[in-house]
Design brief:
alpha/beta, Zincin-like, 2 domains, 4-stranded mixed sheet, 6 helices, 11 strands, globular
Length: 238
């Protein structure tokens, strides 16, 4: 990988065995990346990026305006989210198996061993998020498989820094971001359908968008809602 510059903008360039260029802008700071065919020279890439400057600036502006959580310390009365709702954390130390319970609309109770570290508290909460997200996602995949007319072989969950979901077309495997447990179920459903449509159409072209509009007519509203919700703090690396 190397970089090219256009004014005060730096663009990461990766050359691959592909036919067309692909442009992406990544959170949280709007890093710009172009995947280009192996034999394409920098001048052609620069002209392509210049033609997309307006779109790039809009994406960067959106990321800069997005609310972002401060680093979590997993202490009492700290804010945590589940299914788009904000809860106050209550840490309960007791000599019993760790667990997480939501008892009402205000508090998320985290039960941990005495003297549990921040990382241990985080691990317990993340495993709970993973379990809850899987229980939400599996029925949604089953709901949409006959509607879309495809079959998903495997659903995986992992923490991803730059994507809400990915689809391995050859393996028919979908991965979703663990952070979706914190977002409204409607946003989770949108991401699942988005990735499932890739089993019909690999690229984000007009055909893909037509499928998306057919199955999720309000997909742009859900996309915007997802991007406007508070984003987690990570040590972003690329």
């Amino acid at each position: 990988m190397h970089t090219i510059s256009i004014g005060n903008m730096t663009i990461d360039v990766v050359r691959k065995e592909i036919k067309n260029m692909h442009l992406a802008v990544y959170p949280p700071y709007g890093r710009v990346r172009v995947a280009a065919p192996l034999r394409m020279d920098d001048e052609a890439i620069r002209l392509f990026v210049q033609s997309k400057i307006g779109w790039i600036r809009r994406q960067q502006s959106r990321y800069k305006g997005q609310n972002r959580e401060t680093p979590r310390e997993y202490v009492n009365r700290e804010s945590h989210y589940f299914q788009g709702k904000r809860y106050l954390l209550r840490v309960n130390e007791q000599d019993s198996p760790p667990r997480v319970i939501i008892k009402n609309k205000t508090y998320l109770d985290l039960y941990v061993r005495p003297n549990a570290t921040v990382e241990q508290r985080k691990s317990v909460l993340n495993e709970w998020y993973r379990k809850e997200l899987r229980e939400l996602a599996i029925p949604l995949v089953a709901k949409w498989e006959p509607i879309i007319g495809i079959e998903v072989n495997e659903l995986g969950i992992k923490l991803m820094k730059t994507k809400w979901g990915t689809c391995n077309i050859e393996a028919r495997r979908i991965w979703i971001n663990l952070e979706l447990a914190k977002k409204p179920v409607s946003c989770l459903e949108y991401i699942l359908v988005h990735e499932m449509i890739h089993l019909l159409e690999r690229h984000h072209n007009d055909r893909f968008k037509a499928y998306l509009k057919k199955f999720i007519p309000n997909w742009k509203l859900l996309r915007d809602e997802l991007n406007q919700l508070p984003a987690s703090h990570w040590g972003w690396k690329y």
